[in-house]
Amino acid sequence: PTAQPDGLSDKSLRMASNPGVAPSTGSIQAIIREQFSGRSSIAFADLATGTGEFVPEFRELLLRQFQEVDGIGVERLGWLVREAQAKGYAVVHWMPDVEGDDERIGLTDQSRDIVTINNIESRPWALVAARIAKPDGLLIVTFDRYDIEEGRAIDWWVEEGLAQQGWQPKRVSFPDDYPRSHRDEEAPFIIVARRGPSKQPG
Hints:
Structural class: alpha/beta
Helix content: 25-40%
Oligomer: single chain
Shape: globular
Order of helices and strands: HEHEHEHEHEHEHHEE
Radius of gyration: 17 Å
């Protein structure tokens, strides 16, 4: 693809200006404030967190709005968990398909206000997020730019999977204040989902 002055390819620019992508408020804090107005505490989980740098950054962002923030990152790969814990991050090993592991780390069904998945790699993580988020919760999903540009359709799979679970996914331009570790590698939009009418397949 032809490189643009701002580093976006032609295809990325088309995605960013796609009618399906709503203009962002410019602030993830505004989106969260609208959803949880009047709350003094919040609990979040970051799924497939890797080495966990996102967890303290997102916690710090939430502390600008809430007096108490309970945040945790979860990861399948043990070596990434050990690296995160060595840095002092609140990251634990979690296998969501292993019976009893949810209760072990406190991620039972409908237990978190906000669930994030950054640079999602597989659709099942979105379904896990939908399960552990509270009924009035918020899901936030970001994508790898390469996956979008190569047409791998993971964004569409995530939207369809969440809709079937009773969520209303919405694309917004990447908020200016959302913590991001690899700015050049992330798609120019995120998916934000709230509870809504269930959409049945077919």
